[in-house]
Amino acid sequence: MKLIVITRPTYFVEEDKILTALFEEGLEILHLRKTDQTPVYAERLLTLIPEKYRKRIVVHGNFYLKEEYKLRGIHINSHNPIAPDNYSGPITTSCHSLEEVREKKPHFDYVFLSPVFDSISKEGYTSAFTPEKIRAAAKEGIIDKRVIALGGIDESNILQVKDFGFGGCAVLGGLWNKFCPEHDYNYSELIEQFRKLKHMAD
Q: Could you give phi then psi for residue 5, rounded to 5 degrees?
């Protein structure tokens, strides 16, 4: 099962070092998702990440970065709903219901379904899916290898995601809550958490 990491919503000092360390640990796909869409910050971050790892990055917004930095692909959502004209390459998207997955999945490389569990990073963002609903959707072929579980995933439930039949899971709070940019100078706990999650996902 794929393990995808989504960036923290804000930029922070030494972010490039942590992301590079995650790639070195075997991170296959990183989604660069920031609330601040100012391109200069994204460009600066991408410049600091070794070129060989940029092809593992999917960008949310500022889609021109995909070609400029030879990134993996783009992710469209409600903030950036349309791919650029003449775009060719992987496109992913977000879904929040099983109906949406059924409708969108054929047109994308993979889709996120969220929140599968109560969100760790967004307070009050609770799951709309019971295990029974998810298992039924997997039986119907709605959930398969091209559907990535997102929302509330950490070491306590990642094996359940695997068991449900998702093609992967995307982590945000379940990884980044091991590191506080304002107070932590050492990110070894975050790397250790990534190793644990990756081992469970493999």
A: -110, 135
Average pLDDT over residues 101-116: 97
Q: Tokens 């070129």 — which residue?
A: 51
Beta strands in 22-176 (DSSP E): 29-32, 57-59, 73-76, 91-95, 110-113, 147-150, 168-171
Sign of torsion over alpha carbons 141, 144, 150, 152:
positive
User: For the whole model, what pTM was predicted?
Assistant: 0.96
Q: What is the pLDDT of residues 12-37, one digit of tens each?
A: 999 999 999 999 999 999 999 999 98
> Which DSSP category does 57 fall into?
E
CA 117 to each of CA 45, 83, 127, 154: distance values in angstroms, whole numbers, following the listed order = 30, 29, 5, 10
Percent with pLDDT over 90 in the chain:
90
Number of Cβ within 10 Å of residue 144's Cβ equals 15
Q: Rounded distance, CA 190 to CA 178, Å?
A: 5
| Long-range contact set of residues 72-76: C-beta below 8 Å, sequence gap at least 24 | 72/29, 73/109, 75/31, 75/33
